[in-house]
């Protein structure tokens, strides 16, 4: 009996909530009109706002000029644009693990292979750790070189 009363109350609340949402009733005053109309106030004579003072139109004087006769210019000859040699960035060799030995200095690595695609520097216990990442084939192959205090201490490659 008790369970049946709880189920009945839940069903009544659920049906009432759905009906309330369907009717889109205002929660504060559900029987108020949805639109509000405002009647104009007819208390006293209407006063027209004053018109702005008239503005005088400017007087435009026309002037006649005599056009000077200018001889036509000689036809221009197009000169070829000077060729500017584009500087192509140097292509650096891709570092491989057998070429990198522990103890190489960081500046030697950058001289041999150029600047890395990604580099990170951290410090711990008075040491500086650098990580250089060189990639090729849009990141499918990478060589990761780790430095401690400016010298190579580890290198690994991914295919």
Structural features, described:
By secondary structure, the protein is α+β, with helices and mostly antiparallel strands. It has a domain at 97-158: 2-Layer Sandwich (Beta-lactamase Inhibitory Protein, Chain:B, domain 1), CATH 3.30.1450.10. The protein has helices spanning 2-23, 106-113, and strands at 118-124, 127-136, 141-148, 151-158. 6% of the residues are buried.
CATH architecture of the domain at 97-158: 2-Layer Sandwich
Which parts are unreliable, with pLDDT below 50 for 5 consecutive residues or more?
Answer: none
| Discrete helix count | 2
How many beta-strand segments? 4
Shape, per Cα inertia axes: flat
- What composes the largest sheet? 4 strands, antiparallel
- Alpha-beta classification: alpha+beta
Q: How many angstroms separate the termini?
A: 72 Å
Spatial order of the strands forming the largest sheet: 1-2-3-4
Order of helices and strands: HHEEEE
Question: Care to give the gist of this entry?
Answer:
The protein is an alpha+beta fold and 159 residues long. The protein is 19% helix and 21% strand.
């Amino acid at each position: 009996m008790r369970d049946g009363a709880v189920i009945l109350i839940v069903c009544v609340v659920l049906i009432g909530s759905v009906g309330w949402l369907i009717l889109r009733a205002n929660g504060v005053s559900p029987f108020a009109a949805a639109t509000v109309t405002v009647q104009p106030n007819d208390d006293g004579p209407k006063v027209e706002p004053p018109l702005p003072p008239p503005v005088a139109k400017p007087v435009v004087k026309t002037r006649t000029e005599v056009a000077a006769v200018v001889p036509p210019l000689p036809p221009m000859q197009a000169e070829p644009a000077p060729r500017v040699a584009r500087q192509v960035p140097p292509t650096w060799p891709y570092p491989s693990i057998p070429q990198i030995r522990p103890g190489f200095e960081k500046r030697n690595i950058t001289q041999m292979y150029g600047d890395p695609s990604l580099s990170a520097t951290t410090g711990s216990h008075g040491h500086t750790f650098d990580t250089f990442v060189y990639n090729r084939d849009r990141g499918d192959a990478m060589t990761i070189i780790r430095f401690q205090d400016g010298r190579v201490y580890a290198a690994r490659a991914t295919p």
